[in-house]
Amino acid sequence: MTKEELCRKAQEMLKMAYIPYSRYPVGAALECEDGTVFTGCNIENAAYGPTNCAERTAVFKAVSEGYRKFKRIAIATSGEKISGPCGVCRQVLNEFAPNIEIILINKNGETKEFTLPELLPHSFGPADLT
Ligand code: THU
């Protein structure tokens, strides 16, 4: 899948976001090593704390379907700013794909690309527990 196709999948998920509180939609498209793509959106909650970010929705969908090897994730917002994933999502990505490529997309379709080590240096992960 091309970068543009993955970005479009993330942008398409903006409309699925359940965001009655923040009104801030986020969409994600997670590409597995075999090319399978899992999408996600943010899902908010009246108690606020249980809110799930778009990136984690995509990761949890994938893992629950037996996929654990991830290559890239595209993350779209509807803001002007090209925003990065929150710290919790960085940590969750690190569990399964410490070198994953991250593509960020703003509302104008402008992108920035990072690797997870750039966004989560000196991380804590599974190897630390061995
Ligand atoms: N959000 C995400 O979906 N991903 C992030 O990485 C940052 C924040 C969501 C959570 C909440 O629904 C809204 O954006 C505002 O914080």
The proportion of residues in beta strands is 15-25%
What is the CA-based Rg, rounded?
Answer: 14 Å
Q: What is the overall pLDDT average?
A: 98
**What profile does the largest beta sheet have?**
5 strands, mixed
What sequence of helices (H) and strands (E) makes up the elements? HEEHEHEEH
> What is the approximate shape?
globular
Ligand inventory reads: tetrahydrodeoxyuridine
Bin the helical content.
25-40%
Number of strands: 5
SS content category: alpha+beta
Strand order of the largest sheet: 2-1-3-4-5
Low-pLDDT residue intervals, each spanning 5 or more residues = none
Task: Report a brief summary of the structure.
The protein has 130 residues and is an alpha+beta fold. The protein is built from four helices and five strands, in the order αββαβαββα. The protein has helices spanning 3-12, 54-64, 87-96, 116-119, and strands spanning 26-32, 37-41, 70-77, 101-105, 111-115.
Based on the model shown, name its key terms.
130 residues; alpha+beta; 5-stranded mixed β-sheet; 4 helices; 5 strands; 27% helix; binds tetrahydrodeoxyuridine
